[in-house]
Amino acid sequence: MPSTRRAASTLMDENCPILVSRSLGSLDLPDIWPTNCTTHDFQAVYKCFNKQAAAIIDGKSIAEEITSRIACEVRRMKESTGKVPGLAVIIVGQRWDSQTYVRNKIKACEEAGIKSLMTELAGNCKEDEVVNALSRFNKDPTIHGILVQLPLPQHLDEERILNELSLEKDVDGFHPLNMGNLAMRGREPLFIPCTPKGCIELLIRSGVEIMGKKAVVIGRSNIVGLPTSLLLQRYHATVSIVHAFTKNPEQITCEADIVVTAAGVPNLVRGNWLKPGAIVIDVGTNPIEDSSCEHGYRLIGDVCFEEAVRVVSAITPVPGGVGPMTIAMLLSNTLDSAKRAYDFT
Ligand SMILES: NC(=O)C1=CN([C@@H]2O[C@H](COP(=O)(O)OP(=O)(O)OC[C@H]3O[C@@H](n4cnc5c(N)ncnc54)[C@H](OP(=O)(O)O)[C@@H]3O)[C@@H](O)[C@H]2O)C=CC1
Ligand SMILES: Nc1nc(=O)c2c([nH]1)NC[C@@H]1CN(c3ccc(C(=O)N[C@@H](CCC(=O)O)C(=O)O)cc3)C=[N+]21
């Protein structure tokens, strides 16, 4: 059983903040985790499978708990200011996976009482149409977060489009200034990218101490791998990054206490890549054909789950691990943004 259990079982009180990960402001100081701020329902963190060594970190129920706390905050905000947070989503083209993710995000907004607007543009639209939609949302005072669903079609210049996004509404945390501030010591980004923030939240809620641990991040993309490695460093892990050109990735990975995988390669990480007792956060969300499933496919992660559960002490499942947390963090960033806009605490 991971040492994580002891810390996670320390019950938290009703006044715990929505997220247990602290503001980045004090991250240059040694970390002392608040003992009263883990999950109040230990069962929500781990679902244990019979005869498996590893605890399964239940991201879905943790995300539900966070979302219900956000909903309470939104109600409190509405009662006191008459306003609610607003999120705008821009989606270009008909990719089925993007459509699903965006639908899930809009549904989560409804659950939390957050207003959502969506602009859908044709896959062959002009760059200016995307920029115009962005500019409208930038100016709309009822919108506090804007998300441009990625990837964009090839003909669109992602860099130019993301540069247009108002820094104060960049709830994805992808703006270069947000990313730069995340990377630099002593600086604080306005928003932390949702998936990396969700990974850290899962680690902390599972009672995992990050400080001083060896962490390996597989993948270095702007949206997951890179910000995750920066964030883990902020929490004082010693971080190695594995990417497509890394030689002998298994040798690096098997030394890690914490492994975060975001490669998009199904079953890349085998049981023998992992150190016994390690904690694994599997971000990978890969569709594989399966005629027995409703839509003819199912989702699996980057980690060979069946092998990993016999080696590690805790692991996130796919689906039901990081994915729902990404959405919960999007709501959290949107709420924070609205609080800033209305000076509401
Ligand atoms: N659950 C969630 O909330 C989210 C899940 N995802 C999922 O996470 C995965 C990664 O997404 P994203 O970061 O956008 O993907 P990208 O394709 O942008 O990046 C993939 C990264 O993985 C590296 N990589 C690819 N193949 C290998 C390999 N064989 N060995 C080691 N490294 C490798 C690449 O290296 P290099 O840089 O050298 O090319 C690259 O840095 C996908 O499955 C995606 O669906 C993404 C976002 C959110
Ligand atoms: N601007 C932008 N911001 C993003 O945050 C962003 C993006 N673009 N492009 C694509 C990736 C991917 N991503 C996911 C979000 C939720 C799940 C999710 O909810 N997954 C569920 C399963 C969903 C299903 O059943 O299809 C789960 O893992 O349990 C997965 C992946 C956000 N991304």
Automatic annotation (TrEMBL):
Gene Ontology MF term list: methenyltetrahydrofolate cyclohydrolase activity; methylenetetrahydrofolate dehydrogenase (NADP+) activity
Keywords in alphabetical order: Hydrolase, Multifunctional enzyme, NADP, One-carbon metabolism, Oxidoreductase, Photorespiration
Pathway: One-carbon metabolism; tetrahydrofolate interconversion
Protein name: Bifunctional protein FolD 1, mitochondrial
Highest taxon of the lineage: Eukaryota
InterPro entries recorded: Aminoacid_DH-like_N_sf, NAD(P)-bd_dom_sf, THF_DH/CycHdrlase, THF_DH/CycHdrlase_cat_dom, THF_DH/CycHdrlase_CS, THF_DH/CycHdrlase_NAD-bd_dom
Family, similarity comment: Belongs to the tetrahydrofolate dehydrogenase/cyclohydrolase family.
Pfam families: THF_DHG_CYH, THF_DHG_CYH_C
Stretches assigned to the Tetrahydrofolate dehydrogenase/cyclohydrolase catalytic domain: 57-172
HAMAP family: THF_DHG_CYH
GO process annotations (BP): photorespiration; tetrahydrofolate interconversion
Organism, as annotated: Morella rubra (Chinese bayberry)
Gene3D superfamilies, alphabetized: Leucine Dehydrogenase, chain A, domain 1, NAD(P)-binding Rossmann-like Domain
GO cellular component terms given for this protein: cytosol
